[in-house]
Write a structure and sequence with these properties.
The protein is 78% helix and 0% strand. Helix 1 packs antiparallel against helix 2. The two termini are 24 Å apart. 29% of the residues are buried.
Length: 120
């Protein structure tokens, strides 16, 4: 997905345009409260100086659980999961950290557009 590519290659205008369209497309099926839990964890991990890869990888089962309870999360869950996979593919901790920072910023952009499109 465009999010996974942005995590790997950096955030550019193409990603921002994609994030806007994607945020708009999930505005009806996803509520902010459904994402808040996962996003809150991401923000906590972002504040740590040390990269905590196991905690990042553990977002995947949490996302799967949230999606099982709410099918509307399906597209977002898929996009986030693929982006998490990219983080773990970094060749060393420095690159993984860089990928994770991009992941955080990209996730933030998607949520901002989700809210702007009237996502509750």
């Amino acid at each position: 997905s465009a999010f996974a590519q942005a995590v790997r290659n950096g955030i550019d205008n193409e990603f921002i345009e994609w994030a806007e369209q994607f945020g708009r497309s999930i505005a009806r099926s996803v509520t902010t409260s459904q994402i808040r839990n996962i996003y809150g964890t991401v923000k906590k991990l972002e504040m740590n100086a040390e990269l905590n890869l196991p905690a990042i990888l553990l977002l995947k089962p949490r996302i799967a659980y949230a999606t099982a309870r709410n099918k509307g999360l399906g597209d977002l869950a898929q996009v986030i999961t693929k982006a998490i996979d990219v983080i773990s593919q970094g060749r060393d901790d420095a690159q993984k950290q860089e990928y994770f920072q991009r992941f955080c910023k990209g996730f933030e952009a998607i949520l901002a557009y989700h809210r702007a499109a009237g996502g509750k």
